[in-house]
Amino acid sequence: MKNFLAIDTSNDYMSVVAMKEGVATTAFLPDCAMRHSVALMETVDDVLSRAQMRVEDCDFFAAAVGAGSFTGIRIGISAAKGFALATGKPTLGVTSFDVAAYNAVGGTPKKILCLINALHDHYYACGYENGKVILPPAFLAEEEVLSFAAQGFSFRACGELPLSAKAAVEIVSPVEGLKNAVLAKSENGAFGELVALYVRKSSAEINLCK
User: Fold this and answer.
1) Is the pLDDT of residue 12 over 80?
2) What span, in angstroms and rounded, lies between the C-alpha atoms of 175 and 132?
3) What is the pLDDT of residue 33?
4) What is the Cα–Cα distance from 179 to 182, expressed in whole angstroms?
5) Can you say how many angstroms the Cα of residue 60 is from the centroid of all Cα atoms in its chain?
């Protein structure tokens, strides 16, 4: 399967990748918070047009399933599912952590802790070693994250983090990461139902339980 459309609306940014016969056409909106639903279809149309592709030309559709924005995750998954349903093609999910893990600047450290800002000095985190997950997705306080440096982990993220003032964080490209993660997962045949990855309950659910 060589041709695909991949969408990442899981965080403040938005990435769209159209792959046609090994050539990637991309779009990246760095600050798309609360506007994913408005900007997504227009961006998809633009990327497909520049790639000289139609939705029907895609062999599968991929989406970032989280962790990240609860609303953003649902938007990306719904769009990919809609395209798949309309064309009868399969879907493939990658995590927001995969997007960071499969993207390296100057080589890949042995142990990586991929981070997403969860606000209020907390982070969503997932640990990788040689491309394999060794620490399942978790919701960690800042001091817990920093403790992983002593365990030989390097930190990586797809955007600037408040943590950067206290520890070195490698910032990588969300677009390259999305492309690389989808390519790697598709080569492994990781197709299936798109299921949102929520590392913790939403603020509304947490407040409801109080």
Assistant:
1) yes
2) 21
3) 78
4) 5
5) 17
Within 67-123, residue ranges assigned H as helices are: 70-87, 96-101
Residue 81's nearest CA partner among 61, 110, 56 is: 61
- What pTM does this model have? 0.92
pLDDT classification of 130: cutoffs 50, 70, 90: confident
Cα–Cα distance for residue pair 55/5, rounded to 1 Å = 8
Q: What is the distance between the alpha carbons of residues 153 and 90, in angstroms, rounded to a whole number?
A: 35
The answer to whether residues 19 and 66 belong to one domain is: yes
Does the structure show a pLDDT above 60 at 206? no
Q: Assess whether 66 and 156 both reside in one domain.
A: no
Say if CB 111 and CB 129 are below 8 A apart: yes
- Residues 48 and 117 reside in one and the same domain: no
Going by C-alpha positions, the residue among 113, 137, 124, 142 that lies closest to residue 68 is: 124
Which residue segment(s) compose the domain that 179 sits in? 4-95+174-205
